[in-house]
Amino acid sequence: MLFQVGGQGTRPTFFEMSAAQQLPASLRAALTYSIGVLALRRPFLHKVLDHEDEFFSLLMLVLETHSLRITDASFAESLYGLRRRTVKIRVKKEDARPNSGDGIQQSGLEKHQRILSVVFLVALPYLKSKLHSIYNKEREARLQASLWGNGDETVEDAEYVSGGESSLVSREATIRSRLMKKIQKIMFVCYPWLHASSEGMSFAYQLLYLLDATGFYSLGLHALGIHVCRATGQELMDTSSRISKIRSNERERLHGPPWLKALQRALLSCTYTMLDYAQTGLIAAVFFFKMMEWWYQSAEERMSAPTVYPPPPPPPAPKVAKEGIPLPPDRTICPLCSQKRANPSIVTISGFVFCYACIFKYVSQYNRCPVTLMPANVDQIRRLFHDM
Fold first, then answer.
1. CB 111 within 8 A of CB 123
2. CA pseudo-torsion sign 213, 218, 222, 228
3. The Pex N-terminal domain covers which part of the protein (predicted)?
4. Whether residue 6 has pLDDT greater than 60
């Protein structure tokens, strides 16, 4: 079997594919932050945050469907100039000519591949997010039950006491709640294994892609039989003509009286304008989010940073007492013996240096500094190993 990629575009690098995969997460963070800021003044926007997964999935459904329809690429891939191509593998026969073109050949996406691409790009991430939230809720519930105990069972048992129709309703509700709890427990056990398997497969495919061992960046692309490649200049020009052709056909299919056609054309024009500027607007939102995140983070660091004060000035030097021993002009001479200092030692209370034997004898006898006459004891004598 001969593996060779067709000439419709070069293979993107690992970093290009990683950036395209991470762009939806950055976009979601930017939108969540922007809506959260707006919700401070308009509380009704908190309902959007309460259904964040549904709102973002609906937005990505519109963007991904539109992008795959006109560019044969996902929303993030189209920003990086990438295109999706169907891979068809043909087995080269031994008696075939060498230039027969057998191997891996690429063509445009088919309709079912676009639909399945939307499923992998929108539906599976939404399902994964919901499973993750269910797992977190069950984990928190188990943690609270381990700390405070679970009092739900006593409440459920008490519902059977009431009689008549209310008893039947309460039993149905109790059975339903117990069934949901069992499902949540099963998800709590299975989700870590599913998550680990999914992340492990993603890591394996990315590692193989990085080592040029496979042309598929993810398991989803491999399952769909799709390669991602860079778009050529001719393909970019064909995309523009393709978009104009699709839109002209949609305008021609309008039916109804003239005023209804005019209204439909106006709605289509507004929709086309919003979709055309959606990429620019969303990328600007991501950039604005990153800038605001950096701005507030640097402001918080400046506010939380400790205030650095200059070091305090040293205390003034002690004055020589009138009745004290005068200091010699040479700083290396001991004031007590008037000889060059031997084994220099300092009196910490005043800071003057003497010979160790001289100062130890003087302080032991008079309990004071011989120069300043400040009270001192032998515990305040320190040896100096570097005489200035």
1. no
2. negative
3. 21-298
4. no
Q: Is residue 102 in a domain?
A: no
Is 307 a domain residue?
A: no
Residue with tokens 């209204």: 263
Task: Tell me the per-residue pLDDT of 20-47, one tens digit each, with 9 for 90 and over.
Answer: 888 888 778 777 877 777 777 777 777 8
- What distance in Å separates the CA atoms of residue 106 and residue 84, rounded to the nearest whole number? 9
Closest residue by Cα to residue 11 from 104, 102, 75: 104
**Separation CA 218–CA 98 (nearest Å):** 32
For the chain, how many helices (H) and strands (E)? 13, 6
Which range, 43-47, 91-95, 139-143, 214-218, has the best average confidence (pLDDT)? 214-218
Amino acid letter, 339? Q
Least confident of 174-183, 276-285, 338-347: 276-285
CA angle 194, 200, 205 (to 5 degrees): 130
pLDDT tens for each residue of 70-84: 888 888 888 888 888
Q: How many CA atoms lie within 13 A of 221 on its CB side?
A: 22
What is the span of the domain harbouring residue 270?
A: 254-300
The total of structural domains in the chain comes to 3
- Separation between Cα atoms, residue 51 and residue 79, nearest integer Å: 27
* 242 and 268 assigned to the same domain: no
Is the domain of 199 the same as that of 282? no
Whether residue 367 contacts residue 315, with contact meaning beta carbons closer than 8 Å, is answered with no
The residues that bridge with 226 in the sheet, in sequence order, are 86
Identify whether residues 271 and 144 lie together within a single domain. Answer: no
**CATH code of the domain containing 375:** 3.30.40.10
Mean pLDDT (the chain, rounded): 78
Structure tokens at 68: 């795959």
Residue 72: phi, psi to the nearest 5?
55, 40
Residue 102 or 140, more confident: 140
SS3 353: strand
Least confident residue range of 19-23, 105-109, 218-222, 370-374: 105-109
The pLDDT value recorded for residue 303 is 62
Q: Are both 138 and 234 inside the same structural domain?
A: yes
- Domain match, 211 and 132 both: yes
244 and 258 in a single domain? The answer is no
For residue 44, what is the DSSP state?
G
For the chain, give the number of residues: 388
DSSP 105: E
The residue ranking higher by pLDDT, 287 or 61, is 61
